[in-house]
Amino acid sequence: MSTNPQSSTEKFCWQPNVKIAATVALLLPLLVALGFWQLSRAEEKRDIVARFDQNQQAAPALVNDLSGTDDMQYRSAWLRGVLDSERRIFLDNRVRHSRPGYEVLEVLTVEPSGLRVLINRGWVPAPLDRNKLPSVAPVAGSAQFRGFLYRNLPGSFILDDGISAFPSWPARLGWISVERASELFGRPFYAYQLRLDRDSPGALETGWPTVAVQPEKHTAYAVQWFTMAAVLVIMAISAMSNLTSWLAALIRRV
User: Fold this and answer.
1) Please, are residues 61 and 70 in contact by the beta-carbon 8 Å criterion?
2) Considering only CA atoms, which of 182, 209, 184 is closest in space to residue 195?
3) How many whole angstroms separate alpha carbon 36 and alpha carbon 52?
4) Using one digit for the tens of pLDDT, what is the confidence trace for 148-206?
5) What are the φ and ψ backbone dihedral angles of 253, each rounded to 5 degrees?
6) pTM of this prediction?
7) 37, 78, 87, 128: which one has the fewest Cβ atoms less than 10 Å from its Cβ?
């Protein structure tokens, strides 16, 4: 143990600074709020993944199962009917494999009910010429389409394309939902679209992530924000006091 008498560096001294304190008062609540926001996003994503797992384990829904009010998000479904390849939608700005492309959607008239279901056949690469749309082979006649039911999640990104009516067919849109399809076609649609499995008739390049960002990544982002908040507090205390020299002196005394 050191026998030196207590000096100024051995006594913690506080020297408040208005500018530093004001900066901390502004930034600290923001950093903490961002951390808790990321934690809430992680919880939302865990709920989505849990719903996906639960509904994927259920038996595939048939046409008679579509009339209820149950939560059908991510539920497998087998629907027979005819696709309308004459009125095709190309959903723009869909990137896969670092390539721009489109998701191709068509209207399925389900047999024998006549129910209209929006079918997402999957992704195709975009031609180099933006004035041209990809060539997609139609599905001839009646077929059984297999996939899972999906409706847009709250807070989904929407790219406003300024289109209020289809100018011609096929149509290129920036975003689509069942509700928008009902407005643009002027006819009611089933509340969920069907995203095709890769082995279904009419399937192009399929496969959609359940969530764009996994819950664990949101949790990691939260830890980063909370760490930044802690670092901000430590730096502010150090700048407004002799914390560094006081700790150094304390260590030397041990």
Assistant:
1) no
2) 209
3) 25
4) 999 887 655 566 666 767 778 898 998 888 888 898 888 999 999 999 999 999 999 99
5) -75, -20
6) 0.68
7) 128
Whether residue 171 sits in one domain with residue 96: yes
Q: Is 52 inside any structural domain?
A: no
In degrees and rounded to multiples of 5, residue 168 shows phi and psi of -165, 175
**Residues in the chain, total:** 254
| Residue 124, pLDDT score | 95
Instruction: Give the chain's domain count.
Output: 2
Distance of alpha carbon 212 from its chain centroid, rounded?
Answer: 4
pLDDT value for 51: 76
Determine the Cα–Cα distance for residues 84 and 216; give it in Å rounded to an integer: 41
Cβ count near 39 (within 10 Å)? 18
The phi, psi pair for 224, rounded to 5°, reads: -65, -45
Assigned domain for 110 exists: yes
Cα gap 138→208, rounded to integer Å: 22
Both tokens of 227, joined, read: 């760490």
For the stretch 210-234, pLDDT in tens is 656 677 888 999 999 999 999 999 8
Angle at 116 between CA 113 and CA 117, to 5 degrees: 120
Q: Which structural domain range is residue 108 located in?
A: 75-196
Using DSSP, state whether 58 is helix, strand or coil: coil
59-103 pLDDT, tens digit per residue, is 888 888 888 767 888 889 999 999 999 899 999 989 998 999 999
Number of H helices, E strands in the chain: 4, 6
Spatial contact of 177 and 151, defined as CB atoms under 8 Å apart: yes
